[in-house]
Every structure is written in C-alpha cells, then in structure tokens.
Design goal:
single chain, about 325 residues, alpha/beta, Spore Coat Polysaccharide Biosynthesis Protein SpsA, Chain A, 2 domains, eight-stranded mixed sheet, 11 helices, 8 strands, elongated, glycosyltransferase
C-alpha cells in the first residue's frame, strides 16, 4: 500500500544560520513518522550561503529539494511557487527561522487524517517578538476583520497545512499580492486549529520590523482582497459632503440676514464638498484600481531559475489559460 507523501514548503531569504538546524530537526521528525516526506526550500534570491547549504544537504538526503527564484518574488509568492512544485498529498508551509517548531507537524497531520483540508496554527504566546510589531499586527487583523465579512483568525500566521485539493484551489486563484492567510480561510472546506507557543528566532534577526513595508502591504492586500467597505465609505463621504452644502448655505443666508459676510460660508461649503469628497473618492477607488492593474498586466507571480529534484512549474502553467 502506497504511503502518503507530505510536502513541507519553506520560503526564505538569507537564512544560512538557521538552515542546518532546521534541516536536522525536520529530518528527525520525518524519520519518526510513517509518511514519506519532501522538504521544498524556496530560496528567494538569497545572497548568503543558503544555496550552498541546501546543495550539501541534498547530497546527503534526496528529500531536500529547492527552488531558487530568478528575482526576488516575496514571501507569499515563494510559498505559492513551493506549493506548485510540491507533489505531496498534504502540503505544509512554514518559516525557516525555527519560531514555528517542526515537531508540531504530526499534530497538523492528525487533523488532516481526520478529514480537514485546512489546518491553521494559532500562536497562544510569542517569545522574543517586538511588542510594537505585535500590537500593530493585532490592530491590522482587527481592521481587516472589521472591513470584511470573513473573520480572519488572529495570531494565525504562515504556518498551515493544506490538503492537495485545497492547495490546487488556492493555486488556481488569479491574484497578485495574494493575502494567503485570508485566502486559506476563504477556501472553506473542513478547517481546524492547532495552538502552540511561538519561539524566538533560532539565529539572526527578523527581516521584518514593526513598521516594515511588507506588513503594510499585507494589511492593504487583506482589506482590498476581502472588503468593498472603502467603496461604501467613498459613497458615504460624497453623500455627507453633499448634505453639508445646504447647511452651510443656510448659515450663509442667516449671516446675510444679520448683516454679516457670506463669502466665507460659501467658500467653506464649496471647498469642503469638492476637496473632501474628491480626495476621499480618489484614495479609496485608487486602491482597487491598483489591484485591477496588477491583475490585467499578466506578469507571472514567480520565475524559477533553478530546480534540484523538482520540475520547474511556471506560474502560467498553474493558473491556466486566460
């Protein structure tokens, strides 16, 4: 009887200090489990010795496989590239910094065997994290949940299990700047959660600070992927600005009746309506125009320059014909 194959996807950039220990722990975990494993590392144009470490590791263990991108793709795109190349029945993606313990993988797989297509991990404690970043992260989740109908699980990051069919549905979505954390929830199917304590980084410093660009980008992607609220707010702003015009005109009429100046009231009415409504509308609609632009320009989300032990899967092959 053919045993199940589990694919572990690890998208990273410049993690030479963490890779040896990560591979050691992954190997120990996999050797103690009944399933077959493949470890797919997506090297996002690292400029350290990460690639050399993976080459050495693959020479000792063919389960170690890796992709190297031709240009920096980004964390989410790296995960998608790894999912596209994976051949497992269950696919798990996680970070390379050992904050997410490989020893937790059998617990995720137990839920998968019980019929779950998506298994999230939820952090009940986060050691060694910047408190400012944690506060900003929680506020970002709350904003996304407030603006959208779907509820994104707070403290559930990029450490998840997907069944083969869930991964195929995720890969079929034609989205650039994908908010994978939200899309994994949006997929539906039977889902479960596994709680754990996130550890401090094993080595090195985080690539993301409290105010890093990717955090803001992820928040915007989460809002514009799942919410039409900014468009509704644009309409409300226009209606509110229009409603103020007769009030300001009435104030101008009262001032004229009392012998006062009216030009200030008239200018305020015109300026408030035009500037407030137009600028709010342009800002909100502009977010959606950016997303439309990224979709229609048709650029691939990843480009693979090298593959060891894996077939190169172009993004367009996954997405299919337009």
């Amino acid at each position: 009887m053919k045993s199940d194959l589990v694919s572990i996807i690890l998208s990273f950039r410049n993690e030479e200090d963490n890779l040896p220990e990560l591979i050691r722990r992954l190997t120990l975990m996999a050797d103690s489990q009944p399933e077959g494993y493949e470890f797919i590392f997506v090297n996002d144009c690292s400029c350290d010795r990460s690639r050399e470490i993976l080459v050495e590791a693959r020479a000792k263990d063919p389960r170690v496989k890796f992709l190297t991108t031709a240009r920096r793709a980004g964390p989410s795109e790296g995960v998608l590239a790894g999912l596209a190349a994976a051949t497992g029945d269950a696919l798990i993606y996680m970070d390379c910094d050992l904050q997410d313990p490989p020893e937790l993988l059998p617990t995720l797989l137990a839920h998968w065997r019980d019929g779950c297509d998506v298994v999230h991990t939820r952090r009940i404690a986060r050691h060694g994290e910047d408190p400012v970043r944690m506060w900003l992260t929680r506020r970002a989740y709350q904003i996304i949940n407030w603006t959208s109908r779907g509820q994104m699980p707070i403290e559930s990051g990029d450490f998840k299990l997907l069944s083969r069919r869930a991964a195929q549905h995720l890969l079929s979505l034609r989205e650039h700047d994908p908010y994978i954390r939200g899309l994994a929830v949006w997929l539906g199917f039977k889902q479960a959660f596994v709680d754990y304590e996130r550890q401090a980084r094993h080595c090195g410093e985080s690539k993301f600070t409290g105010l890093h660009r990717n955090a803001f980008k992820a928040t915007v992607a989460g809002i514009t992927s799942f919410s039409f609220l900014p468009i509704y707010l644009t309409l409300c702003a226009g209606l509110a600005g229009s409603a103020l015009v007769p009030v300001l005109l009435l104030a101008a009429l009262v001032a004229w009746g009392l012998g006062g100046g009216v030009s200030g009231w008239l200018i305020a009415a015109l300026a408030f309506f035009l500037w407030g409504s137009v600028m709010t509308a342009l800002g909100a609609v502009g977010l959606y125009i950016v997303r439309i632009y990224k979709e229609v320009r048709g650029r691939p989300r990843w480009i693979v320059a090298e593959a060891e032990g894996l077939d190169i899967v172009p993004d367009r092959a996954v997405m299919g014909p337009s």
